[in-house]
């Protein structure tokens, strides 16, 4: 019973770490979208392409 309890606690900690990572990624994506929106509103298509390329390289790595 004690081992099962420890496993449940460990599972809960793993889930919380996963949820934290998801929240972080969601926050980052929202910031990227905001930057792209501002660039688009200003008609900076070259900067948008550059930003997207850099973002793609970051994700790739």
Automatic annotation (TrEMBL):
Tell me what this protein is called. SpoOB alpha-helical domain-containing protein
Source organism (scientific name): Clostridium autoethanogenum DSM 10061
């Amino acid at each position: 019973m004690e081992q099962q309890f420890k496993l449940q606690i460990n599972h809960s900690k793993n889930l919380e770490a996963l949820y934290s990572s998801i929240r972080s990624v969601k926050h980052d994506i929202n910031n990227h979208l905001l930057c792209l929106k501002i660039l688009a509103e200003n008609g900076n298509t070259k900067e948008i392409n550059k930003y997207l390329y850099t973002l793609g390289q970051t994700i790739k790595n």
